[in-house]
């Protein structure tokens, strides 16, 4: 199988040709003693622990029986993307997210794509994330997923060159952007000289873009909308991120018990009395949002929230029912969505996908499972999947039984040889597989900061990058194009307005 490394044109690393966009960094790295890099790694871990950048691991217990919190390992070596590659990827991301938002609007309104015979009606009707309560509901700018996290991988093509593929669309409550921001802050703290030597596009203004995006979907006639971040609470695995983003945007972090609905308007309780809420950036799943409509026993949401939402008196981001488009059983249809809604050819490719609901494709998957990655359509976080080449015969046989029992619950894909990136591990610098999650913001317009969160599979040979499965993260550098002679240089990164306010 061909391999592609982001920094080196061949493997093994010793003596390999350095790709042009990594050459300046490689010259710097060659001068760094191993003990200095190790001490920097220890310093980063100490700071991350002090700041509290951890995530809870569901189901994991420490020796006292309490839930465990882990630090997501941070790698000191950045992943670097040249300006021209990023420009093309950005165009593809804008195209894809536009089509997905058009699709969700269509699902809850005229269902033209079903009438055209492109997507079977049962794929929508039987989808666990389809919310009939959203039929006919208007959302501002027809944007359902204001914050999308699109997982992108690079794999070698037949010539060994790297080609980008979309692996997954995360449109409900995508997480990880706080690690993107904190990783950059850490790199600038540990290695300030690198940002003088390299024109790295800034990411620190993401909270400003996020707040702008959220304000853009506020109900009409609210010139100064009140935005809140709704969290399930401190025991949620991504609670650090919820608190971080609220603080960076300068808005309130609330739980369901802090909100109430009166006369179809949402209010939060404050020390000065009730305050009307216009936009809720929710980090709570649909099922728990409103006990009047969804799960009656939920204490994480707010009773009456859907009444206020349907009346157009509050905006919820991402919109209720958005998950209908990020289900793995809908993923294979996204290229057709782009052609149907935008009349364009997809810029970013899908990974070839077998739908086990189709008899011929099911037979192929069952016969070739040892060579495939098989995923539950509702699975997430690296759970509910089988990586055939790394599985035992017993695991494969068990998975075959599960797939045959419920074929429409699974898809399968070829095992991609994900690109690798140099990573600082205990033995020194070694290749580890990576992916990339850019965060795409859709309000009145679609915008994003350059790059995203690079996740890295720290176990040698592993293809699973999820933090819940032992993965780590890297800073992602998009190198800005060299400026024309006579133009002023932009700073490598500038503090966002919200950071200035919180400093």
TrEMBL record:
Pfam family membership, one: CP_ATPgrasp_2
Composition skew (Polar residues), residue ranges: 493-503
Domain called Circularly permuted ATP-grasp type: residue spans: 78-457
Region called Disordered, residue ranges: 465-503
Domain of life assignment: Bacteria
Name of the protein this chain belongs to: Circularly permuted type 2 ATP-grasp protein
